[in-house]
Amino acid sequence: xxxxxxxxxxxETMMQDEPVPPATDRPGEGGATxxxxxxxxxxxxxxxxxxxxxxIASTAGAxxxxxxxxxxxxxxxxxxxxxxVGPTTLVGKVLLFLTIILRIVLYPLRRVAQMLxxxxxxxxxxxxGVSDRAAGAFASMFRRTYALRGVVAGGRGNTExxxxxxxxxxxxxxxxxxxxxxxxxxxxxxxxxxxLVYLHSPLHRDAGQFAEATLCDRSVSGYLQGEDLIxxxxxxxxxxxxxxxxxxxxxxxxPYIALLQVKGGGGSGAxxxxxxxxxxxxxxxxxxxxxxxxGLNPNQFLVYIQTCVRAHRATLAxxxxxxxxxxxxATLREEQDREYREALEADRRREAERRAEEDRVADxxxxxxxxxxxxxxxxxQKIEDALMKMGEEPPHKPGQTTRLRLTLPxxxxxxxxxxxxxxxxxxxxxxxxxxxxxxxxxENFSLSTNYPRKTYEDDGIxxxxxxxxxxxxxxxxxxxx
Length: 481
Hints:
- This protein is of the alpha+beta class.
- The chain has helices at 8-17, 33-54, 60-66, 70-73, 87-116, 130-145, 178-187, 207-215, 218-226, 240-249, 290-294, 298-390, 424-438, 463-466, and strands at 194-200, 230-236, 256-263, 273-275, 281-289, 401-407, 413-419, 445-449, 454-456, 471-478.
- 51% of the residues lie in helices and 13% in strands.
- Strand 6 and strand 7 (413-419) form a beta hairpin.
- Helix 1 packs antiparallel against helix 2 (33-54).
- The longest helix is centred in the C-terminal third of the chain and has 93 residues, at 298-390.
């Protein structure tokens, strides 16, 4: 509802007079189910104040019959179906239209201005090489116009101590543009020199005096040429590169000197900082301009520069010390990691050797037990075979038995009767059983007689054939002794 009413009866009457469209799920057919539900909820909420304000019953049928035509006199609400144009949109469209008209009208003037005032040689910093040519031209003009009044100690072209000495005298201004110089210094990290920026205003009354009396002074120019932590950049503000540098550095008066520290990587701009080329960040360490700069003598000017250079040198030394410490820590960590890996590898080798030794010992123990088991099995089989061959001792029967005396290696004598038809192997079987039952450690032995000297190695002959009947004495010899 978009109409404003004050009485509760008017609210209820308006709610009742408004036709409720049937519920539907398809858009465009009398509204959505949610609209009907919201109107029904609003009708229910308006029933209470309506009954309190005017005493009208809250029955929907009675209210509808009492005022059938009031809804016609109510103003129609503005629905959301039609497009509405706000004042902001209208103003924006008007401004866009005016901008297009102005561009069309001013285009001929722009073309005429370009023909009357064509771009100069050093205009347009976006043109490749313009900034570098402007810097080179300024360096040549400065040497030619403000010549060094003295000669740097060490002579023309001297580079003793690793410094840079200008051939023509004066500060060693480079032949690269502002952003190119910043990029070159940023690439020289971590030992990045400071950037001395001199902005020259040819029409300023103090510019020539400062350039000749201070910058071209023997001590100042000699220091700037010999100091390896200073990179000099000079530009005229009448060139595009110089004007851009003045705008970035916030130059307000001339002559202008700034000492900048170039740092690699991005960073948010702040007061005393300017964004350089690429990803370099430029921090302003010293700024001198106008009459305050012109009132300094060369010694005072040099003190300011040397103070900043000493601080920068200390900062670089501290950064180098931190870098060396980080490298040392990294080397130490690498050595510790290497020693740890070597120790771990040694532990692995020892563990592998220990396991191999354990496997070898276990294998030998298994083979030994297997040999012992086979030996025990062979011994048991031997005893069993011996018992079968030996048989029982027969009673004495003349002509059928023989009596043998067996003399052991220990001197002990054994007497036993055998059948005359028994084989020599029966004697050997008897001894095997005797040794086993009495725990005598004799495995291999031989049988022989002293007289006549004869050894019985063939177990397949009978005692009768061996000449051991009716009695004989045999010597038992331990072959393993």
